[in-house]
Amino acid sequence: MEQRIQFFRVAAAGIAALLVGTSASAQEACTSYTVKAGDSLGTIAQSAYGTGEYQNIFNANRNVIGDDPANLVEGTVLNLPCEDGSIAGAASADAIIAEQTKIAASTPKSNAYEPPVKFLAGGNYAPFSDEGLSGGGFLVRLAETAMQRGGNTRGYQTAFVNDWGAHLETLLPTGAFDIGLGWFMPNCEKRDILSESMRYRCDQFDATLPVYEPVVGYYTMKDSPLAGATSFDAYKGKRICRMDGYFTFDLEEEGLTPPAIELMQPTLPSDCMEALVTGAVDVATMEIQSAADAIATLGISADVVENANLAKVVSMSFIAHKSNPFGKQYITMMNRGLSEMRNSGEWYAIISSTLKEHNDNLMKLAN
Question: Where is the signal peptide (predicted)?
Answer without folding.
Answer: 1-26
